[in-house]
Write a structure and sequence with these properties.
single chain, elongated, four-stranded antiparallel β-sheet, 4 strands, alpha+beta, about 70% helix
């Protein structure tokens, strides 16, 4: 499907320098957030319990908090609204007492005076399991990144491969920092969003790089900026359609999926925007900055084509018994 029947060549390389400046500031800001404030570990990783409580009327958050904090077993409890005025989420730090007892009955007994309610969901994760989940989550992110680095390194000229990997790390770092900005707990949903983003972002970049390589082989011009502008312009229709489709699907999840999947939907919303932006304004420009030389690339391709032709001729001569 084509939105733009006549492809207009836009000067993406010219505006990429502003994109790079923006990316540098955002990346520095993201690192500052990661190393100063850091993530807030969710129940999945830190261990503890999470109770989702629904009231028939508006939830008396302050009263609930006061009643729970008065009990030593619930020391450090966090109570927050959960999607609507009559629903709350109670996060309880892990203690051996809470793990051994019947937590649901104890919460029900403590909150009897707050009105009619039901505990819709109660999850408990021990610190050992939480630690294992955290290690596996981090390991899965590292392995996914490493696998993509190996794949891209084999597929492209090393400067393009390096540019694609740097752009991918840029997307993941900024998206991860957004989790801190929006005060989302680091849990398995966030890890799933980052893993999905890694696949989405590198796929978008590879499509642009493939078209750049195709243009370099067919146009035979020695102006790399011209080639990049042509390649991104010709994939713009596809990029916008794909990105907007994914964006609106994730936006629907964010708006109607409720608080329970906000750890996945919000990072993905931000990740889709930055993944699309970096494939057009960051990765190609980085390849130029890293010193990609289109003349040397053409000379190398000519040499490869010549060698392939010589091999073909030699094989034909061998098959006809001339060698």
């Amino acid at each position: 499907m084509e939105i733009f029947k006549k492809v207009k060549i836009l000067d993406f390389v010219k505006y990429s320098k502003y994109g790079l400046i923006l990316s540098i500031f955002l990346t520095i800001g993201a690192f500052v957030l990661l190393f100063t404030k850091g993530f807030t570990p969710g129940i999945d990783f830190a261990g503890g319990s999470a109770a989702q409580i629904r009231y028939e009327q508006n939830a008396p958050i302050e009263k609930v908090r006061h009643l729970l904090e008065a009990n030593p077993q619930f020391k450090g409890v966090q109570v927050s609204e959960f999607g609507s005025k009559n629903e709350i989420l109670v996060r309880i730090p892990y203690t051996q007492t809470s793990a051994d007892g019947n937590l649901g009955s104890e919460i029900t007994k403590l909150l009897e005076s707050t009105g009619k309610f039901e505990i819709r969901k109660l999850d408990t994760v021990g610190p050992k399991v939480g630690n294992e989940l955290k290690q596996k989550g981090i390991l899965s992110l590292l392995l996914a990144t490493l696998a993509i680095m190996i794949y891209v390194s084999f597929r492209y000229e090393w400067r393009f491969a390096l540019a694609g990997i740097v752009a991918l790390i840029h997307d993941v770092i900024i998206t991860a920092a957004s989790v801190i900005v929006f005060d989302i707990d680091l849990n398995l949903e966030v890890i799933a969003a980052l893993l999905t983003l890694i696949g989405y972002s590198i796929n978008d970049t590879i499509i642009v790089f493939d078209r750049i390589r195709e243009k370099m082989l067919t146009q035979r011009t020695n102006n790399i900026e011209e080639v990049i502008n042509d390649a991104i312009s010709s994939t713009l229709s596809r990029t916008l359609l794909t990105s907007l489709t994914v964006f609106f699907v994730v936006l629907t999840l964010y708006l109607f999926g409720g608080e329970i999947i906000v750890g996945f939907s919000l990072p993905m919303l931000i990740g889709v925007v930055f993944g699309t932006y970096s494939s057009m304004f960051v990765a190609p420009k980085l390849a130029i900055i890293f010193g990609f030389d289109i003349q040397k690339y053409h000379a190398k391709e000519i040499k490869k084509a010549k060698k392939a032709q010589e091999k073909k001729q030699l094989r034909q001569m061998y098959e006809k018994g001339r060698v």
